Structures are given as structure tokens and as C-alpha cells.
């Protein structure tokens, strides 16, 4: 595998994942001055809610040729090919996290590699820090897609020891610094169409409550409407296709769920998680549309999936979620699990009714032409003669056989249960 810390002079052209913010602008200039290479910028629109044209203007002011600036709208591809397949699995990392940051990284890396091959670049660079998960996610994806690529990770290479040193470098190289960037940022933010994550600084002490000003994508649940909101989501083969009867494209559908969830304070999560690199971290996640979608998908599966398939999916889910969290989207084991998950979704089609109220979302109805729920079979009233209660006696005796044998041995040896 190629060395990450490539030597000066070996790199002719590098594609940088570029947000247009101060940190990646410093990285851009650092690449130019440290490696003496041509820099190509790539900015992905994943629905982060920011105007991206300023990134183009910023790159131009830093000497990037117009032909070397790439800004791509990836919202539809992101939701259709990454978010929706993940939600078919009901993926939750450590039982809670809906993987909003994790699922965005393989798509960014994929496009970055595509651009690198298109422009003949021999290296790619990212702005992930040396302590976080994103460095792993980006680089595992890079190597899976282009095994001979050289990766430059500035935060692991440069000698800057403080925020002040970074700002001094920016001033020395005429990189504009916004007033709110001169002080220490109160917390860091990552956002896309699925979620917003906030971590660091004021959030680092897990014993302290998240300050109100940190929340940006959800309204205060306590101040949400006093009247519950009822809505429906239609599914076809495990994917949502309509909200309140209106057909919507994937990105538009998720944006619609975000707007509804925001008003009702849906999707806040204060989490201490185990990073892949070995440390624990505390983050605050806001995933309004995803939280609604997760509840709805489990609701439609409850009547369309057989017990064996449903339980097997729940057993596979933690492994699938861990693979995404750790950066193995392009690994064969994730693809194998995806194939099994997708097969389970063939008849996961129907409509789910939900009720949203002050931070909570619940399923209140579900219907499908493929439903396995048989009211005549489960009713306490006289039903069809498909199930004879007398059959349960033999069923119980067979399942109790090994327990009775164990009980006899325990009594013989006078062991406590």
C-alpha cells in the first residue's frame, strides 16, 4: 500500500475535498506551498444547507484555475444510493446513531477519485483530523476504489501546533479570515441532507447538558405545537416514495420529512459513542427526517416481513451499521449484507400512518396488500379453523423437553435454579 506521507516533489496534481471554509482553505494553500503541486478542488453538495458558490470564489482567490474547480450536486444520488439502502437495514450504530456523517463519506470519496482519474491527478487530500473517524472512512474508500492512489492527510503531516499558528499561516498567505473564525470555535458542525452533527469544545464534557444554541435543525420539543401531527409515508420495496399521498423524488422526500420533523422537535440525540480509532466521543445529532423514516420503515416491515426474516435482519443490523460507521461501505462484506437486506425488501410495500408530538414519533397504523397480518387468525373471537389451540399443547411439550431434563438433573443434584 502506498505511503500516506508522500515526499515533496513526488506529487504533481492533487484533488482536495474542499468546503470553502477556513480550514480547507489553509490546507489548499499548504498543499501549494509544501508540495509545490497543482491543486484541484472538489466541493460536494449533499444538502448541507449552505450556498456553495462562495467555495468557487474562494478557490479562485487562492489561485485555482476555473477548470480545476469542481462543484457537484450529489443530493439525489446521496439519498437514493446511500441513505435509502442504509435505511432498508434499519441501521443504528450502538443502538442509537443513524449514521448521518458516516454514510456521506463514501460518496464524497467516490466522486473525488472519479475527478482524480478525470484530471490525471496522482493524489487526493482531505481535511479530516488525526483523531476522528473520517480520516479512516475517506481513506478506506479511496484505497478500495483506486488501490494505487496517494493520500495526503494534512492534519497528520503539518507542524501547526495551535489555532493561532493556523491563523498566522492564513494571514501570511492572504487567506480571508471571518471575524467569527478568529476565536476558538465553540463546537464543530457537519451537516448534510440526512443530519447535522455537533461535537467538541462546549460539548466535550458528557456530564453537561447540550446548550440550546447548539441545536440548528430541530425546534425545541417543549415549544412544539400542542396538537399532534398525523401523516402517512408510502413504501415500495422498502424505500419511501410518497408523503401524505404525494409522490416525491428521494432528496425531495427527505427534505420534506426534515421540515415536518423540525417543527415537532423530532430527532435529537445526545450520544457518547465509541470511535473506530479507539476513543470515546460525545456528539449531538439532529436527524428529524431520518428518525421519522426509521419509525415508518419498521412499521411497514412489521406486517410484511416474516418473523424469521425480520429477526435475522435485526441480527445482521449491528454488523452492517458498524461496517458503515467504520468506513467499509465498499467492502465485500457490506455488499453481501446489502444483497440479503435488499432481498428481504421485495414485498415491503404499503402505507404507514404516524403521529408526531413534541419530540416523539409513533406508528399508529400500517397497511399493505402484502400484509402477513391475519385478523381472523389472531382474534379472540371465533376465527377461521387455520389454527387449533389444542395443537399448542404438543408444541409446548416439545419445547419444554430439554427444560424438564435440565430440571430433573438440577433436582437430583440439589442445585439451585
Q: How many strands in all?
A: 14
CATH architecture of the largest domain: 3-Layer(aba) Sandwich
Report the CATH C-level class of the largest domain: Alpha Beta
The dominant shape is elongated
Low-confidence stretches: 1-6
The residue fraction in helices comes out at 40-55%
Spatial order of the strands forming the largest sheet = 3-2-1-4-5
Terminal Cα span: 56 Å
Order of helices and strands: EHEHEHHEHEHHEEEEEHEEHHHEEHH
**Count of helical stretches:** 13
How much β-strand is present in the residues?
15-25%
Number of domains: 3
Report the CATH topology name of the largest domain: Rossmann fold
Main beta-sheet annotation: 5 strands, parallel
**Rg from C-alpha positions?**
26 Å
Based on helices, strands and strand pairing, what is the structural class?
Answer: alpha/beta
CATH superfamily of the largest domain: HUPs
**Average of the residue pLDDT scores:** 93
Word description of this protein:
This protein has 417 residues and is of the alpha/beta class. The protein folds into three domains: 13-93 and 102-184, Rossmann fold, CATH 3.40.50.620; 189-305 and 348-367, Argininosuccinate synthetase, chain A, domain 2 (Alpha-Beta Complex), CATH 3.90.1260; 379-412. The protein is built from 13 helices and 14 strands. The strands form three sheets. Strands 3-2-1-4-5 form a five-stranded parallel sheet, sandwiched between helices. Strand 6 and strand 7 (196-199) form a beta hairpin. Helix 3 (75-88) packs across helix 8 (250-263) and helix 4 crosses helix 5 (134-145). The longest helix is centred in the last third of the chain and has 22 residues, at 391-412. The protein is elongated, with a radius of gyration of 26 Å. The N and C termini lie far apart (56 Å).
Amino acid at each position: 500500500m502506498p505511503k500516506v506521507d508522500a515526499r515533496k516533489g513526488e506529487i504533481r496534481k492533487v484533488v482536495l475535498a474542499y468546503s470553502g471554509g477556513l480550514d480547507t482553505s489553509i490546507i489548499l494553500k499548504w498543499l501549494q506551498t509544501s508540495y509545490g503541486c497543482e491543486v484541484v478542488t472538489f466541493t460536494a453538495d449533499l444538502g448541507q444547507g449552505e450556498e456553495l458558490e462562495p467555495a468557487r470564489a474562494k478557490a479562485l482567490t487562492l489561485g485555482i484555475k476555473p477548470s480545476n474547480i469542481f462543484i457537484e450536486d450529489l443530493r439525489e444520488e446521496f439519498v437514493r444510493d446511500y441513505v435509502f439502502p442504509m435505511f432498508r437495514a434499519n441501521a443504528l450504530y450502538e443502538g442509537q446513531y443513524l449514521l448521518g456523517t458516516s454514510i456521506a463519506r463514501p460518496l464524497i470519496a467516490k466522486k473525488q477519485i472519479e475527478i482524480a482519474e478525470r484530471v490525471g491527478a496522482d493524489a487526493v487530500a482531505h481535511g479530516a483530523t488525526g483523531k476522528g473517524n473520517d480520516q479512516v472512512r475517506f481513506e478506506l474508500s479511496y484505497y478500495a476504489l483506486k488501490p494505487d492512489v496517494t493520500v495526503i492527510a494534512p492534519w497528520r503531516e503539518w507542524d501547526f501546533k495551535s489555532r493561532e499558528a493556523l491563523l498566522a499561516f492564513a494571514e501570511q498567505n492572504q487567506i480571508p479570515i471571518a471575524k467569527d473564525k478568529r476565536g476558538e470555535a465553540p463546537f464543530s458542525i457537519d451537516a448534510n441532507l440526512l443530519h447535522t452533527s455537533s461535537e467538541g469544545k462546549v460539548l466535550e464534557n458528557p456530564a453537561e447538558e447540550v446548550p440550546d444554541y447548539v441545536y440548528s435543525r430541530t425546534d425545541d420539543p417543549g415549544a412544539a405545537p400542542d396538537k399532534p401531527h398525523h401523516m402517512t409515508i408510502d413504501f415500495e420495496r422498502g424505500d419511501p416514495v410518497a408523503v401524505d399521498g404525494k409522490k416525491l423524488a428521494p432528496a425531495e422526500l427527505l427534505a420534506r420529512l426534515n421540515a415536518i420533523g423540525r417543527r415537532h422537535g423530532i430527532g435529537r440525540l445526545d450520544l457518547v459513542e465509541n470511535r473506530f480509532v479507539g476513543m470515546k466521543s460525545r456528539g449531538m445529532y439532529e436527524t428529524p427526517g431520518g428518525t421519522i423514516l426509521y419509525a415508518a420503515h419498521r412499521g411497514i416491515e412489521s406486517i410484511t416481513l416474516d418473523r424469521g426474516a425480520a429477526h435475522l435482519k435485526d441480527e445482521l443490523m449491528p454488523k452492517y451499521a458498524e461496517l458503515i460507521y467504520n468506513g467499509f461501505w465498499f467492502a465485500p462484506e457490506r455488499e453481501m449484507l446489502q444483497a440479503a437486506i435488499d432481498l428481504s425488501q421485495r414485498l415491503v410495500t404499503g402505507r404507514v400512518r404516524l403521529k408526531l408530538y413534541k419530540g416523539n414519533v409513533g406508528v399508529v397504523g400500517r397497511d399493505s396488500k402484502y400484509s402477513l397480518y391475519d385478523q381472523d387468525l389472531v382474534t379472540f373471537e371465533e376465527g377461521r379453523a387455520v389454527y387449533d389451540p389444542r395443537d399448542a399443547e404438543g408444541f409446548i411439550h416439545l419445547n419444554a423437553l430439554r427444560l424438564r431434563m435440565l430440571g430433573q438433573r438440577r433436582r437430583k443434584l440439589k442445585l439451585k435454579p
